[in-house]
Amino acid sequence: MSIAHEYNFDGLIGPTHNYAGLSHGNIASTSHKGAVSRPREAALQGLWKMQCVAGLGVRQAVLPPQERPDLAALRRMGFTGSDAQVIERAASEAPHLLAAVYSASSMWAANAATVSPSADTADGRVHFTVANLQSHLHRSLEAPATETALRRIFRDPKHFMIHPALPATAALSDEGAANHMRFAAKHGKAGVEVFVYGRGGVADAPMPRKFPARQSLEACRAIARLHQLDPARVLFVQQNPRAIDRGVFHNDVVATNHENVLICHEDAYVDTAGFVANLRRAMRKVCDDSLHAFVITRKKLPLHVAVKTYLFNSQLVAVKNRSFFKGLGLVYPIECSRFRASFMGIMELGNRQCPIGSVMVTVKESMDNGGGPACLRLRIVLTQAQARAMHQGVLWSPALNDQLVAWVNKHYREELRPDDLRDPKLIREGRDALDALTGILGLPGLYEFQQQ
Ligand code: SUG
Description:
Blueprint: E1 4-11, H1 27-31, H2 39-55, E2 59-63, H3 71-76, H4 83-93, H5 95-102, E3 113-116, E4 126-130, H6 137-140, H7 143-153, E5 160-163, E6 180-183, E7 192-197, H8 217-226, E8 234-238, H9 241-245, E9 255-258, E10 261-265, H10 272-287, E11 292-296, H11 303-309, E12 315-319, E13 327-333, H12 340-347, E14 356-361, H13 364-367, E15 377-383, H14 384-389, H15 398-411, H16 425-441
Parallel strand pairs: 1-2, 4-5, 7-8, 10-11, 13-14
Antiparallel strand pairs: 1-15, 3-4, 6-7, 9-10, 12-13
Helix pairs in contact: 2-15, 4-5, 15-16
Bound molecules: N~2~-(3-carboxypropanoyl)-L-arginine.
């Protein structure tokens, strides 16, 4: 076994963060449609969260935001003329399309890709599959730029294998790591990978009626094959369709995990008790380890409160900063502390063998679009050699944090209203910001506009 560590790659919140109500099935997104957003505040909240997580001793890194508006997408949809004309035409003829190309949704890095560490893959490389996010137009635009960014950061083919997104079709609908959990005795040891799907199992499997099931079983199977996983160490489990209908659009809205620890809601899966038993068995058999499972009942925490407060979208991390706490830390959103049931849920987690402390963070701007602390980060387990081989400019440090805070303060607007999206000045502002960012992160020419 090689020593490996989990890196949390957070999506830097981009300058056009706004509330467009684009995600059917995501209650926070639809209920904040048209609200005034605060991009500067949003990005600073994201940076502050990274600082908190790094302060616990977790390895932290950043993923750059994508260029928005995606003018090329509007041109592909038939809008012509100068950049300003393209924006104006889309604003008058199809404001929903303008909103889609303006979304800063790449901040939710948990949806960027599914990642399998080298301890699980047959060829001993870290495998990534970029998510096609085909269930929503604004999110589907992310895939090509996500692939470009991952290829720039994880360049060395000796260590890393980046698979492009699966064909963007309903049969292969894939939302990345938000529907994937990896369990292992230690990060560097072989583990059990759990793929959570919303549809595509047996023909008579229950289906959600109100909201879409975003992840297909076929996509999960394809990723397990691409990543060369041992079928004996893979589990596929179906999300509870009733939970989807109550706004649980991804698994990470009702479950979180770390190494041999699972925290989930009783209503997370079609058969939660059966899943936990299977996982326990698999852990014992292939990892020679026991699972610590904390299943929170609906009586203690009704599902709608879990969705509203995002307790399960907390980041469960190993705390290395001994002056704080020894054990695991749950980095939870402030919204949990406002509802007694959620707060009690946090307080009652953990036990003597598996102590769990807690740290509160504020990511309200992202939360109001349905993205909690865990949505904002992609976990990537890397050995020391792999960590050395990746691009170093994206690694979090106090100095990088200071630079990014100054960058946000210089380039971001304080507020954005829906009507502001028709302002052509926003195109230039965004490009200036991203141009400066590539200097800070040492990723010159990352964006297409820099190549023109
Ligand atoms: O895909 N919201 C995102 C939130 C993603 C949260 N990610 C995880 N759970 N991992 C989504 O629904 C809203 C954008 C808007 O409405 O403007 C949005 O895309």
